[in-house]
């Protein structure tokens, strides 16, 4: 029986616990991804690390499965590639919204929004991500995952932000190859079934999957959601374009 792994990681309770890496990636350039943020969730069960994406100066997009029912607060580290160092801004968020129909098995509606306690000023290393159009597809596009997740299922960790190029797999092909995952139009598949190698892993959850849009801009097309032992089969992302209505509404009301 195949086991699907969500990609959050348990940490010791601290400001920035052990770093985690992307599989098959390389260090990202300083300020290369100014919209990515590092999150530490303080919960009744311990502290969990995830990634997130800054959508404006008040809101961070992440995965619903990063939240524990006992979540008390979230440390948001903005504007750094090293998750052991304080970035341009470090804030503690206590307001968020998890999709009301989130389901872990099968994984559905894996999307959430965090509201920061105060607006953050933008600069060279802090900026909002561009959003895709509602319903926009990315099959065949060369995209980039970024995060602080492990380099492999049983591999050691790093503190430095990594990124990796990953093609978007044709959706129908991915649904056939990963029938056990019960994929729908709200999912995006990234990776290479033939050669493997590049993937996300534990600790990357909630982080961005950047793709070129039809207008030429790089947009946050996906939210890192789950996979099977990291580099086996494709990595699965929540489709941002599928949830544009939910995102737009939540940006207005949260």
Automatic annotation (TrEMBL):
It comes from the Eukaryota. Residues 22-252 form the Peptidase S1 domain. Gene3D superfamilies: Trypsin-like serine proteases (2.40.10.10). Coiled coil: none annotated. Keywords: Disulfide bond, Hydrolase, Protease, Serine protease, Signal. InterPro entries: Peptidase_S1_PA, Peptidase_S1_PA_chymotrypsin, Peptidase_S1A, Trypsin_dom, TRYPSIN_HIS, TRYPSIN_SER. Residues 1-16 form the signal peptide. Pfam families: Trypsin (PF00089). GO terms for molecular function: serine-type endopeptidase activity. One of its GO terms (biological process) is proteolysis. This is SP1-Abd-2. It comes from Abdopus aculeatus.
């Amino acid at each position: 029986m195949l086991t699907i792994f969500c990609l959050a990681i348990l940490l010791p309770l601290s400001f920035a616990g052990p770093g985690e890496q992307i599989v098959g990636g390389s260090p990202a350039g300083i300020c290369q991804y100014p919209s990515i943020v590092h999150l530490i969730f303080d919960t009744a069960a311990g502290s969990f690390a995830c990634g997130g994406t800054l959508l404006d100066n008040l809101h961070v997009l992440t995965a619903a499965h990063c939240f524990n029912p006992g979540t008390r607060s979230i440390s948001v580290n903005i504007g750094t590639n090293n998750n052991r160092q304080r970035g341009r801004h470090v804030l503690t968020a206590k307001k968020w919204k998890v999709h009301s129909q989130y389901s872990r098995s099968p994984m559905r509606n894996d999307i959430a929004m965090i509201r920061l306690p105060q607006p953050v000023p933008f600069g060279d290393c802090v900026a909002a991500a561009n959003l895709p159009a509602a319903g926009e597809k990315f099959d065949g596009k060369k995209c980039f995952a970024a995060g602080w997740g492990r380099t492999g299922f049983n591999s050691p960790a790093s503190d430095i932000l990594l990124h990796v190029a990953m093609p978007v797999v044709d959706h129908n092909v991915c649904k056939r190859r990963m029938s056990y995952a019960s994929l729908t139009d709200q999912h995006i598949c990234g990776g290479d079934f033939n050669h493997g190698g590049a993937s996300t892993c534990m600790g990357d959850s909630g982080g961005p999957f950047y793709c070129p849009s039809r207008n030429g801009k790089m947009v946050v097309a996906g939210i890192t959601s789950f996979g099977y032992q990291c580099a086996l089969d494709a990595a699965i992302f929540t489709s941002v374009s599928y949830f544009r209505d939910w995102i737009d509404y939540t940006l207005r009301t949260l």
